[in-house]
Write a structure and sequence with these properties.
Elements lengths: L5 E5 L7 H12 L4 E6 L5 H10 L3 H20 L5 H18 L6 H27 L3 E3 L7 E2 L10 H11 L8 E5 L2 E4 L4 E3 L5 H11 L4 E6 L20 E3 H9 L10 H6 L3 E6 L8 E4 L8 E16 L9 H11 L4 E6 L3 E7 L12 H8 L3 E15 L9 H6 L9 E3 L5 E7 H15 L1
Parallel strand pairs: 1-2, 1-8, 2-5, 3-5, 4-6, 8-10, 9-11
Antiparallel strand pairs: 6-7, 10-11, 12-14, 12-15, 13-14, 15-17, 16-17
Helix pairs in contact: 1-5, 2-3, 2-5, 3-4, 4-5, 6-7
Adenosine-5'-diphosphate (ADP) binds next to loops.
């Protein structure tokens, strides 16, 4: 085993074209400890593949596949004289067209189609690296390592099996090698390709890092650091030098796209330090995500999670009776609906659900579930909401915090407040169309 093992992940914009890939190659080659490189599909490709999987017209599918074809061959054309790469990429593109046509509209088919994005980008990127680093670069099929269940579109990794696979296929070969592999994809026990959900390459990289007991997980993206809020919403947002595991976990769960919500889970399990930096400006200081940080501000950052649904159920049966909540959650669980926040009173319960519009089978509230709930309670559903979270430390015990927060939002209709359940966040729901301006107001006032 080498002394230090780092896993580096590069996102879609970092893989956007040949020059972007070159920049990433320089980052990888500047540090011999980067042993495993996990890449996303090239920018926009997963969206095109999703459109293929959802289209009912063969000519439209072919049109979309052609766009993917052109984009990838354009990158290959800059690696002059590499016939072998050209053959590999053309083969993948041909397979994609074959698979795309006439596929049954099943989640399994969708995952199979989506997997081509990362398979193409990793094949090309391995060659960009090999141009400079030669034979020490190996392409690795992530599906050999990332074992998952069969829950297509949002597969759950099988941590034990992943460790077994890594011990067998990766660990003995890490010395003097650099593996290039795919984010986002895995394989179920029955041998079928699965995906971990949109943005899942960060999670893949964390799973690889966990499986090889890496010292550092690096997330190279299109922003220089984790910021105090999404810099696309607040231009004055500031880069964060250090943030704790728990704060980063909450920030991502509450919507900061810079990290997939599950990324911190493996890192916390194995105490792996995480670095977030920009592949465009690798010399700019990034963010270290650590178990413990020097500073522990009450409010470190603000996050925004869109597409929220608020489900409120009322029933007088709840009053001094038992079993109501169990019954309510059974219906939600039967429909695989994942609940994020819950508040209750004597006669009503409010829950937030992620209206995940990108992954089928998750989040949105099926009519059937509402019908079942209506057999024993009154149901009210409000959509087009956003969840805003203040992330920091000891928010649950800091007195005099919620007063100034909510008085700065006078005139804003606040639907549900969760304060006290976690020491790291205070969050509430607002109307989608007011959400960005609420983030701006809070950022200006509290950060
Ligand atoms: P990648 O393709 O590299 O995975 P993503 O687009 O998934 O990149 O994530 C990076 C984006 O996350 C940034 O461009 C930024 O707009 C968004 N983002 C949201 N919240 C934050 C935050 N607190 N700090 C930094 N970036 C954020
Ligand atoms: N390519 C996948 C997506 O766009 C995974 C990722 O980029 O993290 O969602
Ligand atoms: Mg991402």
């Amino acid at each position: 085993m080498p002394d230090l093992v780092k896993v580096a992940k590069f996102g879609g914009t970092s893989m956007a074209d040949f020059n972007a890939m070159r920049r990433c190659a320089a980052i990888v080659l500047s540090d011999p400890d980067k042993k495993i490189v996990v890449v996303s599909a090239t920018a926009g490709t997963t969206n095109l593949l999703t459109a293929i999987a959802e289209s009912r017209s063969d000519s439209e599918k072919l049109d979309l596949a052609d766009q993917i074809h052109k984009k990838h061959l354009e990158i290959c054309s800059q690696l002059t004289g590499n016939e072998e790469l050209l053959n590999k990429v053309t083969l993948l593109l041909d397979q994609l067209k074959d698979r795309a046509l006439g596929g049954p509209m099943t989640p399994q088919y969708r995952d199979e189609v989506l997997s081509y994005g990362e398979r193409l980008s990793s094949t090309i990127f391995a060659e960009v690296l090999r141009e400079q680093a030669g034979e020490k670069v190996s392409w690795l099929d992530a599906r050999e390592i990332i074992a998952t269940d069969q829950n297509h579109g949002r597969a759950e990794p099988d941590i034990e099996q992943i460790e077994v696979n890594a011990r067998k296929k990766l660990l003995p070969n890490l010395k003097n090698r650099c593996f290039v592999t795919q984010g986002f994809i895995g394989r179920s026990k029955s041998g079928v390709t699965t995906t971990l959900g949109r943005g899942g390459s960060d999670y893949s990289a964390a799973l690889f890092a966990e499986a090889v007991n890496a010292d550092v997980l690096e997330i190279w993206t299109d922003v220089t650091a984790v910021y105090t809020t999404d810099p696309r919403i607040v231009t004055e947002a500031k880069p964060i030098t250090e943030i704790s595991f728990n704060e980063a976990a909450e920030l991502s769960v509450f919507g900061a796209k810079v990290l997939h919500p599950a990324t911190m889970v493996p890192a916390i399990r194995k105490n792996i330090r995480v670095y977030v930096g920009s592949s465009l400006e690798p010399d700019q200081p990034g963010t270290w995500i650590l178990k413990q940080t020097k500073s522990r501000p009450v409010i470190r950052a603000i996050s925004l999670r869109r597409n929220q649904t608020l489900l409120t159920v009322h029933s007088l049966d709840m009053l001094h009776r038992h079993g109501f909540l169990a019954r309510l959650f059974k219906v939600l669980s039967d429909h695989k609906i994942s609940v994020d926040l819950v508040t209750t009173s004597e006669v009503s319960v409010s829950l937030t659900l992620d209206t995940d519009v990108t992954t089928p089978g998750t989040g949105y509230l099926p009519d059937e579930a509402i019908r079942e709930l209506k057999t024993f309670c009154e149901v009210e559903v409000q959509r087009n909401l956003s969840l805003i979270a203040l992330i920091g430390n000891n928010l649950h015990t800091t007195s005099g915090l919620s007063g100034p927060v909510f008085s700065s939002l006078e005139g804003i209709n606040i639907r549900l407040i969760c304060h006290g359940a976690s020491s790291h966040n205070l969050c509430f729901l607002v109307d989608e169309d007011r959400a960005e301006s609420v983030v701006r107001t809070l950022h200006e006032k509290f950060i």
